[in-house]
Amino acid sequence: MKKIFTFATLLILAQGILLAQEGKTVSESSVTPRYVQDFQRQQKNVKDVSWQKIDSTTFEAIFTNADGELQGMRFSPKGTEDRYYIDPQYTPQFMKDTIDHMFNGYTIKQVYVKIAKRKSTYHARICKRSGFLFWKKDKDPKVLNFETATGKYIDYTNE
């Protein structure tokens, strides 16, 4: 009985830790009003809007656009970025090849096209997985940047 109680306690603690790490989602009322107004002005027919706080001055609205595609808009003092998310199974082959060659052991978590200041680039968020069973966590996350026209690898940033 004591073993079951200990295991249940550990399980509850582990779930609490995982939920605390996902605590970046915020309500619309917590977002800078100017960002909410810009979003509502630019995006009329959207569904399932959720706001995320990236840092103290940066927020992202993730939503489903009128075509049913997952999209995001990131607002910061530097400006606005549009993000068009791609299902990882449709990742362009040149991105997969670069990740396999230069970042062995990393897996693709997210792929999107970013448009900022009339310039578009492909981005892939990658990371290593470590842990045991369901206690796995992302380790050493990076965001890789690629040119959209040629597919050429540009650089990466640590998250």
Describe the fold and architecture.
This protein is α+β, with helices and mostly antiparallel strands. 25% of the residues lie in helices and 45% in strands. It is built from three helices and nine strands; from the N terminus they run αβαββββαββββ. A nine-stranded antiparallel beta sheet has the order 1-2-3-4-5-6-7-8-9. A hairpin with a 2-residue loop joins β4 and β5. The longest helix is centred in the first third of the chain and has 20 residues, at 2-21. The termini are far apart. The model is unreliable at 1-23 (pLDDT under 50).
The helix count comes to: 3
The chain-level structural class is alpha+beta
Number of strands: 9
Give the overall silhouette.
Answer: globular
The parts where pLDDT drops under 50 for at least 5 residues are 1-23
Largest sheet: 9 strands, antiparallel
Helix/strand order: HEHEEEEHEEEE
Q: Radius of gyration from the CA trace?
A: 19 Å
Helix content: 25-40%
Q: What are the defining features of this structure?
A:
alpha+beta, 3 helices, disordered N terminus
